[in-house]
Amino acid sequence: MSTSPSAPGPESKGHIEQAGASDESIQRVHAILIREKEEPKEGFTPMPLFLLGFISAMIFLGAVYFVHYRGDFDPLVYDYRFDAAAAKAAASAPKELTPEQIIGKGRILYNTCASCHTPSGMGVAGAFPPLAASEWVTGSEERLIRLLIHGLAGPIVVKGLPYNGNMPAFGPGGGYNWNDAKIAQVLTFIRQEWGNTAPPITPEKVAEIRKAESARAKPWSEAELQPFEEP
Amino acid sequence: MASASQLASSLNPSASPELVKRAELSEIDASTKLPALFFFGSAILWLLAGTVFALLAAFKMHNPALLGDYEWLTFGRVRTAHLNAVIYGWSVNASFGVAFWLMARLSRAELRHSGMLLIAAAFWNIGVTLGIYGILTGDSTSIEWLEFPSYATPLLFFAYALVGAWTVITFRFGRSKHIYVSQWYILAALFWFPWLYSVAQIMLIFSPARGTVQSLVNWWFAHNVLGLWFTPIGLGAVYYFLPKVLGKPIHSYYLSVLGFWSLAIFYNWAGVHHLIGGPVPVWVQTAGITASFMMVIPVIVTAVNHHLTMVGNSSALKYSPTLRFTVFGAVAYTFTSLQGSSMSIRSWSELTHFTHYTIGHSHAGMYAFFTMVMFGSIYYILPRILLKEWPSAKLISLHFWACALGIIFMVLVLSFAGVKQGIDMNSLPIGADGKPGAPAPFLEIVKNTIPWLKLRSYSGILLTIGHLAFAVNFVWMLLKPRPAGATAPTLFRNGPELEVSR
After folding, report:
1. Which of residues 47-86 of A touch B (CB under 8 A)?
2. Under an 8 A CB cutoff, do A65 and B255 touch?
3. Nearest to B138 by CA among B223, B77, B208
4. What's residue A24's pLDDT?
């Protein structure tokens, strides 16, 4: 054991609790305890002043941070950038529908039309004209909107074939009284279904025409609609 | 057992009270001998096992084919086995030994019926073995820090209850009128850990909470194991060994009180910073960030207290292994904690979270702080309970330098790798035209980390060398015969030449 690297020597005096040499005697063994320093005690130096200032600053900054990013303590707010006022305004604002949603709503509204014009948009020969590839549907929106708002009575020629039925009014005075949005949706649907590729119709345009024709009380005839053939 | 302290004072009434106290300490140390040896011995075995798992996991990061054909050695299992072996095997075993040894000494009470602690140690180690076996065979619960399958946990709970109860009983029957700061920390930790562990077990395994509450409980638990179990045990050890080795009082009682209570108040909230940016109510995240920042208070206060105790005694670091390991750990504690607070800043977390930076940070905490303090403690405790000296100072030196350099190297490498990784993932590279281009492909970013991961593996080899030196020294110390006459207590002989003046 005397080969131990820290055998007694001049430098080993410096070892505090780790001598390494163990070949000696009783004293050396109990030296482990004897040489121990006394059990630790606490001093009572007062806290340095800068620490007090530092801790106060930390508490202040922590409080400011916490209040600033508290997210209104709302359990549904996950992001500190959440702005309650803006979210409320967005929720109450009219919803902007996507083109797909407009077509979807139009498809549902078309159920009303399908009883005459048929679900495939092919119509019934002699009575109800087709909508698929019809120049009346894909052509002038002025004419189409007017037709829907006030209806049409008497004979009409579509795709070169004659029809004679009654188109009811979907605007004021008729049994349906659809608003601008509904009219725009169903018209957009028929203009883009069955291979039709005409541009959509906006509720604003419907409102504009409804206003222009507010004096009218009876259905249109084919001849009366002729002036609106050109868009 | 006839009290040696009474014997001492009866044989020589003029014996100094200091010597009587020493005799008492020697009895207390002797009463902790077997359980402490059991805990430290198994801790060292688990340290070696954990190191093997760590090396495997580290090498698999840059060489995935390595042993990839064995199902139970796949990365997911080996990495988990590493975590649990070093946490529940090494760290908890070591902290148990340190906790009741310190508690017995500071309370001035012999450990009664220490056989119960041997049973606890057996149960704990059987539990950990079963748990690791479960993880390797694929029974992991997949909840981080609680991967042990449910057939292992009752054993752990039983063992913990025994150790905790015995340490608290030792405190209760202590003769010391004064409660020293280390005792606050250990006592608090003994109550905090069962609270954490049982709540986490119930809310995550036995009757799992639903939705994001699960991840909240998970990180509350995982972070608090560090902050409310390992940190108080580590700080308790630093608060004991620093003044003990230096032979001077801790700088300020007031700072100790402030450090203890601010840790107790703030740490509990901090774990949520693992969920920044996640689907958790923002006020909870903000509370976690604020608490992480308030942790600067206990850290700075404790650092000032330790530093002012240490100041003017740095030369002692040259002589005492205990002091050197402990001071390294205390400095690492300050560094790691401040780093941890900074990592909770939202913008910095955005960059570093989910990168190797976090891995570097956790090793700085569990290794550079806690493990180094435990090494220092074991270097101090073992000669006292075995009444033998450590056989080789060279091996201790090798242990220190390999581990200290290894862990510094590892933390640096992982931090660089992590920041680089974070920048690559969060930003668009600037093209030749000076405009931001397409994001770098993810696989490209992964490949860029490989050189760093290789360096990390090399640092792991350094740590392994240190651990082997430690283990060899430990076994050598156990096997080496006690010097003649060791059993005869001749405590009255005070050899002044052995008293170290420095």
Report:
1. 47-48, 51, 54-55, 58-59, 61-62, 65-66, 69-80, 82
2. no
3. B77
4. 41
The answer, yes or no, to whether residue B42 has pLDDT greater than 80, is yes
Nearest to B336, CA basis, from B369, B308, B294:
B369
| Residues in chain A within 8 Å Cβ distance of B242 | 40
Give pLDDT tens digits for B285-294. 999 999 999 9
Q: Do A82 and B282 touch (CB under 8 A)?
A: yes
Angle of the B181-201 helix axis to the B231-246 helix axis, nearest 10? 160
Torsions phi, psi of B25, nearest 5? -60, -40
DSSP per-residue letters across A96-155:
PPPHHHHHHHHHHHHHHHHHHH-TTS--BTTTB---TT-HHHHS-HHHHHHHHHH-EEEE
Lowest mean pLDDT among A179-193, B66-80, B216-230: A179-193
A28 vs B contacts (CB less than 8 Å):
483, 498
Instruction: Say what the pLDDT of residue A176 is.
Output: 80
Q: Report how far apart, in Å, the C-alpha atoms of B119 and of each of A227, B35, B84, B115 are.
A: 103, 9, 21, 6
Q: What is the pLDDT of residue A9?
A: 43
Domains, chain A, ordered by start: 49-92 (no CATH), 99-228 (1.10.760.10)
| Nearest-CB residue to A27 (from B300, B323, B495) | B495
A chain contacts of residue B258, beta-carbon cutoff 8 Å: 47, 55
pTM of the predicted model, to two decimals? 0.77
Q: Residue A216: exposed, middle, or buried by beta-carbon count in 10 A (0-12, 13-18, 19+)?
A: middle
The more confident residue out of B243 and A226 is B243
Q: List B residues 252-291 in contact with A (Cβ-Cβ < 8 A).
A: 252-256, 258, 278-283, 285-287, 289-290
Determine the average pLDDT of the residues in B245-252.
88
Task: Name the residue among B231, B255, B184 with its Cα closest to residue B374.
Answer: B231
Chain B residues in contact with A74 (beta carbon < 8 A): 281, 283
| Highest-confidence segment of A91-95, B388-392, B473-477 | B473-477
Residue A15 with chain B: CB contacts under 8 Å: 319-320, 500
Helix (H, G, I), strand (E, B) or coil at B427: coil
Residue A85 pLDDT > 90: no
Contact in structure between A23 and A1 (CB atoms under 8 Å): yes
What tokens appear for B24 in the block?
């008492």
Hey, which CATH number is domain B179-479, 3.40.50.720, 1.20.210.10, 3.40.50.970, 3.50.50.60?
Answer: 1.20.210.10
Of all residues in chain A, the percent with pLDDT exceeding 70 is 84
CB < 8 Å to B280, chain A: 78
Q: Amino acid identity of B144?
A: E
Domain-wise residue ranges, chain B:
16-175, 179-479
Count of C-beta atoms within a 10 Å radius of residue B73: 17
Residue range A148-159, pLDDT digits in tens: 888 888 888 888
**ipTM reported for the complex, 2 dp:** 0.84
Interchain contact A15–B (C-beta under 8 A):
yes
> Within 13 Å and on the Cβ side, how many CA atoms surround A37?
21
Q: Give the DSSP letter string of B133-196.
A: HHHHTT----STT--S-TTTHHHHHHHHHHHHHHHHHHHHT---SS--HHHHHHHHHHHHHHHH
Question: Would you tell me how many other CB atoms lie within 10 Å of the CB of residue A231?
Answer: 9
Percentage of residues in chain B with pLDDT exceeding 90? Answer: 68
Domain pair B16-175 / B179-479, same fold = no
Q: Which of B283, B380, B396 to mutate to test the interface with A (most CBs of A within 10 A)?
A: B283
Please state the separation of Cα B55 from the chain's center in Å.
19
CATH class of B16-175: mainly alpha
Question: Which candidate from B253, B393, B394 shows the least CB-CB separation from A44?
Answer: B253
Integer Cα distance of B52 and B67 in angstroms:
13
Beta carbons of A1 and B485 less than 8 Å apart = no
